[in-house]
Structures are given as structure tokens and as C-alpha cells.
Amino acid sequence: MSMKQAGGNRKPGGINSGAAAASGAAGFGRQSLGRGRNSAKVPSAAVAFSGVYANMQMVHVLTSVVGNKCELKVKNGVIYEGVFKTYGPECDLVLDAAHRKSPEPSVGPRREDIIESIIFKSSDVVVVHFKDVDLNYAKKVSSEQDNFTDNAVSSRLNGEHKEKDLEPWDGGEQHASGSLESLDNDLSNGWDPDDMFKYNEETYGVKSTYDSSLSSYTVPLERDNSEEFLKREARAAQLAEEIEGSASYKARVALENDERSEEEKYTAVVRDSHTLNRENKYIPPGQRNREAGMSWGAGRQNSPRLVQCSPGPPAPRAGPHDYGTIPGVDQRVVNGGPPRMSPKSQRTPRTHRVASCRGGGPSGADFMSQGASGEVTAPPPARSSPSGGTWSSVVSGAHRPRSPRQNSMGGAPPVPSSLSSPQAGTVPVDSMTTPTSATSPTSASPSPNLAEAKESRIQETRQNSPSANKENVKPMESSSGISRLASKGPPSMTPDHRKQLDNLKKFSVDFRLQSSSNPDPVFETMVSKAPRDPGEKPKEQATDKSTTDATESSICDEVPVTLVATAAGSKPSTPSPSPSSAFGTVSEQKRGPDVTSQGVQTSSPAVTSTLKLDKDDKEDKKDPVPESVRKSTLNPNAKEFNPRPFCSPPKPATTPTLPRPQGQPSPSIVVQQPAVYGQHVCFPQMYPLTPVSPGVQKSIIWKSPAMYHVPVPHMTLSQSKPYRTGKVPNMPQQRPDQHHQPGTSTMMHPNTAAGPHIVAPNPAYSTQYFTCSPQQFASQPLVQQMPHYQSQAQHVFSPVMQGSPRMITPPTHGQPSLVSSSTTQYGEQTHTMYVSAPIHQQYPHPSATLHHHPQHPQPSATPTGQAQQGTQHGGSHPAPSPVQHSQHQAAAAAAAAQALHLGNPSQQQMYSALAPTPPSMTPGPNPQSPQASFPSAQQAVYIHPSQVQHGYNPNHMAHVQQAHMQSGMVPTHHGTPSHPVMLMAAQPPAGPQPPMPQGTLNPIPVSSTTHFSYMAHPQCKLLVFLLLNIYESKGFNFEQLMICCAR
Amino acid sequence: MAAPGPGEYFSVGSSVSCLTCLGQRLQGEVVAFDYQTKMLTLKCASSSGKPNLSDVILVNLAYVSEVEIINDRTETPPPLASLNVGKLASRARTEKEDKLSQAYAISAGVSVEGQQLFQTIHKTIKDCKWQEKNIIVMDDVVISPPYQVENCKGKEGSALSHIRKIVEKHFKDVESQKSMQRSQAQQTQKDSSLSS
Q: Contact A57/B46, CB-based, under 8 Å?
């Protein structure tokens, strides 16, 4: 090739066109060079096998004689002798070191007679005589061992042309002991290490210094209940789940644990006596469980962890926690993990782990307590709840982590409070904590997982209790729904915890101020909920609910109808408790999140029902919403999407004030303390998310088709909106304000606000944002991802993204559908969403973008308010369509942002978020806009392409950034075309560079450049924020981001 | 011309006999045939009589006459074994180098006998080289023209005695080969004369 290319290059240098030169070169190579033949093949390679190469026999025989000396007679009778080198497709022959054979016999050629290589055209060749050829010379004998496989043995006909029947070898009777046979019959699993040490010591006087604790190599893990540890443990569990959930892992484990020996698998000899007792042989951990009848994932996870708690696989599950209802748990798991069996199994294992951990310490107590509470209400349910709870917790643990993160992101405060309270005892939500503490105490003992588990448990318990109650009514739903709910809840919790830590600390004071009132409402809601949920999880639920915040409350509310219904019911209750707009919003948001989360989790009919209920509620609220308060309520709906991510919604619900601060922390903060909070709060949640989400959505949509163009317009719109909302909004007021703000002015604010925020708060914010988005998403399929996100581990994200995306996507789809199903209106919205989506695409086009921009700005204004807080979305929803749109966009943006940050998982989340946004876009005006968020599912479809791309994060980032830039540019600044172009240029690099590293790198530069030009613009800042978040998620250096920002 | 028609194919495994335009009679088992290039590959018994080896003849049927199928394939040929291309390539390289080194010696004016001896020794002992017209084996034994056993000189020892044995055997083999070749040549001539 190289030669040819070189030749080609030379020739082109002359007159020939490149192609002609290339072809000529190829031809030349054939004729001139011995090796040219090989290269010559290249041209014909495209045609597959041409000429002789298509003749298998010819190819085989000619290849077999390569390297043999031969005499080649040419037409004119001249004989050439040389080493057969190779042959061409036209059966041209190449002889190396060939010389013209002289008539004189046995006179060797002189050096000068030898030609390096000669190519003989087949038409010139008469006969080629290869003498003394060993046709078996090059026959591949794979290896010596192959001579002893059954196949090889049986293939040795040894003159007999019949298939050889292999007979099992029988060593005879004399193999009593010490013989080969004894090895097969030896049931022991080799030497016990202690026996070895003992033997060596007795026989050789060697004393081993072996320490089973391996203290020389490692340090024992100190378990504590610190948040940090819990977080780490949770993350470890998540990672383990991811890994163990991967198909590759399972495939490998299956290989490793295949009980059949190699002999069994490949032998052609059937041994009746082959059923050797392997009881005493070493059995891989995974296999051990397997034997228990567990699924691989479950078995594995269970086995190790279970082992700790209890020996048997089933026992572990049930045993550790004394949940006799293991089966139920499994079912739940299955139900909970509908989207992915493996994930579920993983989850279950995790749960087991969690359970085991907990079981080892406090966890057991927690479970017990929960189970007890559940049992109190309804024994059977209780069992299921406990078991389910554990499972769900486990499952949710996986999911929860995500959701928690989301929650923490969005409504981190509340959730964190609950979570933190148990684990770290978050300061902010004392009231919250108290309830949670009740639940948490039990769970608290366990590790971080415990915290999640607690949450999950709480949720589970709640669910269980509801489920129990429900189960009485609707057993099926309860089980599945519960598990889902539980799972959802917990995730939110975990994230919250994480976020809470930071957020709570920062906002603890503020939160308290708000929370003080909120907690009460929450409790009230809880109480009210409890009543509503007849005989639901009485105490635990109440406490849990309070702790669980909105999610629980939502659950409780929904409980009446179904689990979902309970959530809806809780919402009503929450609203009541939180009369204030903020509360209402919070509650709504919480509800929304809960609903979404529940819906997502349940994904089953129950979810849909809940969603519908929620929607109905929302709609009802929305109708009233037009007012600030109602809007707030509407926002709750909107928040559902965002809130979910926030998870905080739940928290807020429990502690309304807290939730807001947490969930809406940024907004609230901003409002309250513009300077301080504004930066922090705004960034994380609203701005980044909203802008990002729109951009993301757009970007995503665009990406699939024409990534760059479209994204930009959207970005601008969405960005402006989200930012504004995010920054400005205080919970209730903000929303209205935002709505009013829809104008460009809001745009500016957000940007400005975002800009600063971006720079400073990056880490926290990013996390918050992520968490928020995750939560939102989490509510949907994303939940699973959420945990990862929550765990924050940027690393986690990447893995999650890769692994989870697939998993997640289905759920998201389901969710969207659910959403739509829940409210017919929503379905319409979804349609509208689609429309909007197209519009977005149009936007990419310069002209289109312009038109759209105007529209977007309005939405953005409202959205910003919504965007500000995931929960706010709900509130915003109440507001007229514009707000909704804005909210949706914001939500979508947030989701998108999250997605961006998160990467694949985020993408999925993005979908959900996106879906909402599109609806909002089209429906914008309609009150249902909140619901519009649901349409996200449809949008999700659009998103899919983007999701598909793993590199999206970078790309998304770039896109988003660009989008932001463009958005900013287009409306206010210059003509869209030029900007788009800019974006295009910048984006293309990112797009091409799907790989994370490259993509990220490129995006960064692009963003930086864009930033430079646009930095002045708020959007730029937003972009920066988004970028930062993304980078953070990816583990990029903030410094770089900072630098970019600085630029 | 008795070249096969377009529709005629040689089935692998059948025995074919033909006469080239150069008057050479070829006969062997069909190993492969390519219709496009009219190239037919035959496998025959080794010309050196070695049982585990065989001669392979590639014939261009465009220059062949009197093609006749002695007997058709009796059974399906065995599946083609995969080939170790690397091994083949290395063999080609080695053969080429050997030939070039041999040519070097020849160009140095070494007698045929010397060259043949060198090749024989080289098969057993790689560490041999030409020094002018002398063969240096293992830097220890020098064989000077006319390369007879008595021409082997060096430090008395196992090495020298070993080389002498090789040289002695070489000339024995050469003699026997010559006689065989002569007889074969005569036979082939007779055959050709008879057939023609």
C-alpha cells in the first residue's frame, strides 16, 4: 500500500488526476514489484476475491507451495528457476531470486544471474514445476494440545476411513488412592491453607506469616455512619451494580462459574459417572448463590453480602432481615426493575448488600422497624413492604442514589434533610429530620446505603404501607408500585443527602426559616396523608413521609387512588399544608416529582394513574394557578419533572420551606440573598439546567439530524428562559415574576446571574443541577442513573451513562407515555411538543431561529422561573402557557443540562426533560403546559439519537454552549446566521469527537471561544455553567472551566 | 488442440495427463483448476522419490495438448486445511537467501562440487561460510578445494571428525543421486520418445 500510495503520489505530481494516478500506481506496482502483487491485491480487494483468488483450491495449493523452489517454463522454452513468492489474481506468478536456468546441469547461478524477483504473466507460463513439495508444510496445527483433543484423536484415522468411536478411559481398579482417579473422586477442595501451613511447618519447619486480614497489604475498612462513608458506600454499591449489571460482566461470570468443566463441555466422550460431587470443591461466590437458585446478579450480590448476614441465598434475603417474604421482594424487584431485568437483579443484589450491611448493624433495625411499621398496618403487606422495602431500597438504592442525587440537586435540602438527618443529621431540616430520624435511626446505623436504604425503606415503607393498604385494595400495584416508589424515593433521598450536605449547610439557615414552616406543613401533610391512606404505614410512613418529603407525601396523597394516587393525594394534602404559594409550589413540585418519580418507577398502570391523578390535580391547580399561588401549584406539576430530579421536592414537601430552599434552593436563595445565594442557588438548579436542558434538548434533537444548527436557536430561547427563571424566582413570587419576565430582560438577568454563579459555585452547583436533573429524570427511567449521578462520581456518570443509557431509555419512553396517558391533555401537549420539536429543528435554520426566538423568550421568561426550581416548574405550570413553556423548557433545559452533565444517563434524563420542554414550547400558552413536560417522552424520541451518542456529553456541552451562545446572539445580539455559523464551526469539532476526552476537549475550546465572544452575554455565562457542570460531571478540571469562564 | 472446452472442468482428485507445447508429458492428480486463467495444478509423485513429498505442477492449459482424464475423481477431496502464511513467507525468505548466498559462492568461482558440499554442510551446520574458495565450518575446520575428505583440515577433535563424516557421506549421496538422475533422465527420454 505504502508503495502504491507513494507511486500514486508521484504520478499525480505529473498530470494524471489523483484517481488515475492511484490506479496507475497500483497497476504499476503489480507489474514491477514482486510485492507489488500484494499491493496489487488492494485495488482488486474492493471486488472481494477476483480471478484466481476466488478459486479456493487454486489459492490453497499455490499458497502451499510458496517458498518452494520451482522451475518455470515460458512459452519460448526458457526455464527460470526461483523461489515461488506469490501470485496475482490473474495467476501471475512471482519468483524471487530467479535466474534463467542454463542448459548445463547442476551449475548454480552466479550472483549476477539472479534477478531479485520476476513476475510472469500467466499467459507466458507454460509449466511450473515445484519439486519435492511438502504440501503439509504449512498446515496449521493449532497447537500440540490439539493433537489430544477428542476431535484430533478421532480424526486420526490411521488408515481407517470410518469415524472413530471414542471410549471413556478407564484406569482400572488399581486406582485406589493417589491415582488420577482419586483426584476426580476427591471431594475436598484441595488443601486448606491452614493445612498447607501446618504441613510446611511440621515437615519443613517453615512458619507462615500469613495474616488472613492482609494487614500488610491493606487497611480494614472502618465503617461508620458518616455521610461521607455512606455516600461512598452507596456509590460503591452503585458502581458494583453497574458493573454487575453489565452484560459483559454477566457473560464473564457465566463463563467463570459455568459449573460444567471443560471436559464436560467439550468432550466427545460421555461419561455416566461424570457427575462428580463438587460439593466440597471450590465454588465461586457467584456460583454459590446460584446454587441457591438465585439469579446471577442477585445470587452474586446476595451471596457475598448475604453470606455475611446469612448463608443461604434466599435466607440472606429473607434471613438477614427476617423477611420471610423474600419472594415478594424478588417480585418487587422484578416489578421495580421492569425496565431491565439485569438492573433489577443488580438492584436486588444491591439491596441485599444494603440489607446485609444494614442487617449487620443498624440496617437490620431499620428494616425491622420499617417492616414492623408496615406490618403493623398490614402484616402481609408489611412483609412485602419490608422485604420489598429492602429490595426496593436496594433497588431504589441503585435507583435511589440517582434519584437522591437528583433530589439533592433539585430539592436536595429536603431529601438531604431526611437522608442526612438519618445519616449525617442534616442541620437544616430538623423537623424533617425528626421524622426521618425516626425512620432514619434504624437505617442510620447502616452505611450510606443505609441512608438510601432508609429512604428507600421509608419510601418503601410508605409504599409498602400504601401498598399494603393498596395491596389490600390493589395488591399488584402496591407491590410493583411500591417497589418503584420506594426505589424512586430512596434515590432522591440519597442525592439529597449528598447535596444536602453542601446545600443544607449553606442553606440550613435559610431553609430553616422557610423550612420551619415547611416542616410543619409537611408533617401536616403527612398526617393528612396518613389518614388518607387508610391504615397505611402509620408511623413509619408518617415519619418516613415527612422525612421523605414531598415524594412520600406525594405517595401518600396518591395512595388513595393507587400508590400513585396516594402521591396525588399527598399533593393535595401538601398543598393544604403549604398554603403559601411557596408551599403550594413546593408541594406541587414535590408532588410533581413524586408523581413523576412514582410514575417512572411504577411505569405500570398505577403510575399512570398516579400521573393522571397528579395531572388532574395539577390541572385543577393550574386552573387556579393563574394566580401566583395557583401558579405555584402549577409549578408543582412542572416541578414534577424538575422536582423529581431534585428529589428535593419530596424534601420540600416534608419541609416545605426546606424543600424550596433545597429543591428550589437556588431560586429561594437567590431571592433571599441575591448576592450569595443567587450565585450558588441559581446556578446549580435553574440556570444551568434550564439553559442546558433546552439546549440539550435542542442539541439532542438537532444532533441527531443537524445537530448544531437547531440546538443553537433552542438554546438561546431555553437558556434565556431558564436562566431568568432560575435566578430571579423565589418560589412563588419568582414564578409570577418569571412569567412576567418572560421578556428579554429576564434573559439578561439569568445570564448575568448565571455567569457569576457559574464561575464560583461550579462544583456544588453542578452537582445540584445534576442531582436535580437526575431526580427529575430519575422519576422517569433515569432513576437508576440518578443514583450514579447523585453519587456524583463523575466517574460514575460516565459508566452509568454508558451502561445505564440503554436501560434508562426504555423507562423514559415508558414514562412519557405514562405521562401522556395520565392526562389526555398531556397527550395533546405531547403532540404539540412534537410540533415544537420540529420547530426547534427549524430554529436551527437562521430564519426559523429568529422567529422562534421571540416565542422562546416569553417561554423562557416564565420558564426561567420554573427553571429556577425544579419544583418551581410545578408552580410555573399554574401560570399560563407561557410559563409552562418556559418551565418546560427550563425543565427540559435543566434536564438537558443534567443530561449533558450526566452524559448518557443524563441524556436519558434529558429526554424526559426535553419531552417536557417541547410540550411547553408548543403548548406554551396552555395551562397544561406543566403536563407538557410529560410530552418529553415524545421528545425523548428525538433525544434518542443524541442519547445514542455517548460522546454527547461533550457534544452536548458544545452544542449547549453554542446554543446558548447562539440563543443569546440571535435574539439580542447579531443576526442569527452568523452566530449559527459560529456555532456550527465550533460544534462540528465537538460532534466529530464523540469520545469523551476529545469531545470534551474540543467543546471546551469551542465554548471558550464562544465564551470569549459571548462571555458578556448572560447566556455565555450559562453556557459556561453548563460546561462547568458537564465538566465536573466528567471529572474535568474546574480550573479549565474557570479559565474558559475567565476568558 | 485438445484443450478442454469451456464447459469442461477438471474435478479435483481426478488423474489427468497432458502434453505441453514444449513436448513435456505431464501426469498427475488434479489439485486445482482455474478456468479463467486456464491454469491447472497437478500433484505428482516426488521426483526425488521421497514418499512424504510430492511435486506440484502448474500447467497453463493454453499451451497443452492431449489432455485426457485417466480416471475421474473417486471421492470428495478432503477439506482444505488452513495454512500458516507466516511459515510460508519465512520459508520463501529463507530459500531466497540461501539461493543468493549460493550464488555468491558460485560467482566466487567455486566448483560445483564445492557448492554442493557447502549446501550439504549448511543443512547440518549453519555456521559455515565461504572464505575465498575454502569452506570454513564453525571457524574450526577448513575445507579447501577439491573438497574431499582429505581436504578437511583443522584441530583434531570431534568437530573435524564430524565434518569429515559429513563430507564423506555427501559425496556418497552425490554419486548415488547422479546415478539415479541419469537413470531417470534416460527413462524420461525413453518415455518421451515412446510417447511421441
A: no
Residues B99-140: tens digit of each pLDDT: 887 777 777 777 777 777 887 887 777 777 777 778 888 777
pTM, two decimal places: 0.30
Measure CB to CB from residue A75 to each of B12, B38, B63 and give the nearest one.
B63
Q: How far is B156 from chain A (nearest CA, A)?
A: 32
CA B64, CA B21: separation in Å to the nearest integer?
5
Residue whose C-alpha is closest to residue A1002's, from A971, A970, A961, A969 = A961
C-alpha cell at A1009: 471561544
Of 3.30.720.10, 1.20.810.10, 3.40.50.2000, 2.30.30.100, the CATH number of B14-71 is 2.30.30.100
What angle, 0 to 180 degrees and rounded to 10, lies between the N-to-C axes of helices A227-245 and A475-499? 130
Chain B residues lying within 8 Å of A35, measured CB to CB:
none
In whole angstroms, how far apart are CA A696 and each of A798, A839, A876, A963? Answer: 17, 15, 21, 9
Contact A131 B115 (CB under 8 A): no
**Domains along chain A?**
51-138 (2.30.30.100)
Task: Please give the DSSP secondary-structure letter assigned to residue A54.
Answer: G
Render pLDDT for A28-64 as a digit per residue (tens, 0 to 9). Answer: 333 333 333 333 333 334 456 778 888 888 888 888 8
Put simply, the answer to whether B100 touches A93 (Cβ < 8 Å) is no
Domain ranges of chain B: 14-71, 98-182
Report the pLDDT value the prediction gives residue A332, as an integer from 0 to 100: 37
The continuous run of DSSP H or E covering A367 comes out as helix A362-377
Q: What are A453's three cell numbers? A: 436504604
Contact pairs from chain A to chain B, CB under 8 Å: 191
CA nearest A863: which of A753, A739, A716, A772?
Answer: A739
Close Cβ partners of A774 (under 8 Å, ≥ 6 residues apart) = A402, A403, A405, A406, A409, A491, A495, A645, A782, A785, A786, A789, A790, A898, A902, A905, A906, A909
Handedness of CA A967, A972, A976, A979 (dihedral sign): negative
**Minimum Cα–Cα distance from B85: chain A residue:** A138
Per DSSP, the residues of A507-545 read HHHHHHHHHHHTHHHHHHHHHHHHHHSTTSSTHHHHHHH
3-state secondary structure of A412: coil
Q: Which of B56, B59, B87 sits opposite A133 (nearest CB)?
A: B56
- Least Cα distance to B3 among B59, B65, B70, B57 occurs for B65
Q: Which of the residues A38, A58, A118 would you substitute to probe the B interface, choosing the one with the greatest number of B C-beta atoms within 10 Å?
A: A58
Residues of chain A with pLDDT under 50: 1-46, 143-145, 175-177, 274-280, 290-496, 509, 511-633, 636-1020, 1036, 1038, 1041, 1044-1045, 1047
Residue B135, H or E segment:
strand B134-137
**Beta-carbon separation of B41 and A56 below 8 A:** no
Categorize the per-residue pLDDT at B146 as very low, low, confident or very high, splitting at 50, 70 and 90.
confident
pLDDT digits (tens, 9 = 90+) for A734-757: 343 344 433 333 334 433 334 344
* Predicted local distance difference test score (pLDDT) of residue B45: 86
Select the residue from A56, A70, A83 to test the B interface by mutation, using most B Cβ atoms within 10 A.
Answer: A83
| DSSP state at residue A137 | T
Q: In this complex, is the C-beta atom of B46 within 8 Å of any C-beta atom belonging to chain A?
A: yes
B32 at A interface, C-beta within 8 A: yes
- Of the candidates A842, A933, A949, which has an alpha carbon nearest to the alpha carbon of residue A892? A933
What number is the ipTM of this complex? 0.73
Q: What confidence score (pLDDT) does residue A37 get?
A: 38
Helix or strand run (H / E) with residue B131: strand B128-131
Q: What is the pLDDT of residue A1027?
A: 54
Across the interface, of A93, A129, A140, the residue whose CB is closest to B81 is: A140
A1044 or B4, higher pLDDT: A1044
